[in-house]
């Protein structure tokens, strides 16, 4: 039980052809649900915090919650900054004890992305912290940034090689057709596996990261809609597509939307079925249980990282 970097996790995942789940967290119930699931099935974990989540939960609280989760479990946890948009934010998280940071320079031009990523890598590595970067542009919503489908660009394999060589990053998030949020595909879900395979061949033994990789589990979308929600036409990345990606060098699979849907669906259901209840422990507890069971399913049936501690 320790706070660790992702180095060993990724090495084993790459060799084993499976992926580690990177789950977005912003409160106690979400953290507990995820960590309890990982403990039950002996899986390493990446808990990731976006700038928005850090602001919401406050840095000091988040750090203590994750430390408490480590004391309470036998799980190796990497604490990761998700979509850091500046050197300063990455530095703050490194100084706060994060073991991994993402610098997302995908909105910058190529040379600027390289420049800042390199700066983050130098500071992070000097402090024993690993760095994820992003090349290419995913469609969808992250915090206030909304990238339309037309502005999304897939990662260029040759550029990925140049980028990794020149920045010294430890892992790279690529764009092959996934997107953030609950509306990933209009028609048939499709990922560019040819591009992924090309990148993996050009960068052997190098961990690739898939953002926007929630399945948007129909059970929870239906639960939200049945109990007063309004989330029509939501669609995510089917599970078999994620399993296939894990076989091609994808070592980290990011999941946020599925956590949100599980928590919200379970709470909506509980409140509708128990209108006289107003004890937060009751409905938040339902949400926490839903997250635990969903994450267990992900780890065992989709990511394949159970019993790898
Ligand atoms: O990539 C993500 C966080 O960085 C989350 O993606 P989803 O919206 O598919 O859960
Ligand atoms: O990549 C986006 C994640 O889902 C985090 O979302 P957020 O920035 O709204 O916390
Ligand atoms: Zn991005
Ligand atoms: Zn993301």
UniProtKB/TrEMBL annotation:
One of its GO terms (biological process) is fructose 1,6-bisphosphate metabolic process. Its cofactor is Zn(2+). Zn(2+) 1 binds at residues 83, 180, 211. CDD domains: TBP_aldolase_IIB. Dihydroxyacetone phosphate binds at residues 181, 212-214, 254-257. Its EC number is 4.1.2.13. Pathway: Carbohydrate degradation; glycolysis; D-glyceraldehyde 3-phosphate and glycerone phosphate from D-glucose: step 4/4. The keyword Lyase applies. One of its GO terms (molecular function) is zinc ion binding. The active site is at residue 82. Catalyzes the aldol condensation of dihydroxyacetone phosphate (DHAP or glycerone-phosphate) with glyceraldehyde 3-phosphate (G3P) to form fructose 1,6-bisphosphate (FBP) in gluconeogenesis and the reverse reaction in glycolysis. This is Fructose-bisphosphate aldolase. It comes from Helicovermis profundi. The lineage of its organism: Bacteria, Bacillati, Bacillota, Clostridia, Helicovermis. The gene is fba.
């Amino acid at each position: 039980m320790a706070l660790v970097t992702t180095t060993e996790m990724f090495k084993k995942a790459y060799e084993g052809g499976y992926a580690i789940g990177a789950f977005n967290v912003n409160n106690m119930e979400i953290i507990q649900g995820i960590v309890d699931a990982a403990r039950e099935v002996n899986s390493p974990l990446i808990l990731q915090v976006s700038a928005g989540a850090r602001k919401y939960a406050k840095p000091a609280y988040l750090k203590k919650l994750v430390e408490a989760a480590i004391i309470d479990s036998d799980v190796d946890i990497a604490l990761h900054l998700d979509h850091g948009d500046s050197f300063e934010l990455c530095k703050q998280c490194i100084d706060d004890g994060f073991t991994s940071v993402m610098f997302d320079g995908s909105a910058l031009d190529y040379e600027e992305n390289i420049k800042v990523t390199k700066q983050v890598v130098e500071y992070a590595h000097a402090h024993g912290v690993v760095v994820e970067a992003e090349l290419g542009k995913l469609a969808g919503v992250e915090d206030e940034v909304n990238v339309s489908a037309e502005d999304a660009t897939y990662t260029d394999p040759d550029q990925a090689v140049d980028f990794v060589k020149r920045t010294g990053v430890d892992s790279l998030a690529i764009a092959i057709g996934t997107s953030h949020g609950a509306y990933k595909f209009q028609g048939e879900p499709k990922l560019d596996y040819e591009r992924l395979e090309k990148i993996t061949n050009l960068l052997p033994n190098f961990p690739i990261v898939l953002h926007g990789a929630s399945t948007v589990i129909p059970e929870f979308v239906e639960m939200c809609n049945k109990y007063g929600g309004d989330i029509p036409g939501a669609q995510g990345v089917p599970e078999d597509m994620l399993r296939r990606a894990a076989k091609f060098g994808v070592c980290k699979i990011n999941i946020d939307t599925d956590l949100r849907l599980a928590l919200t669906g379970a709470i909506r259901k509980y409140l509708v079925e128990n209108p006289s209840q107003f004890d937060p422990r009751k409905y938040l507890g339902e949400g926490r249980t839903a997250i635990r069971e969903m994450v267990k399913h992900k780890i065992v049936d989709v990511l394949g990282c159970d019993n790898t501690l």
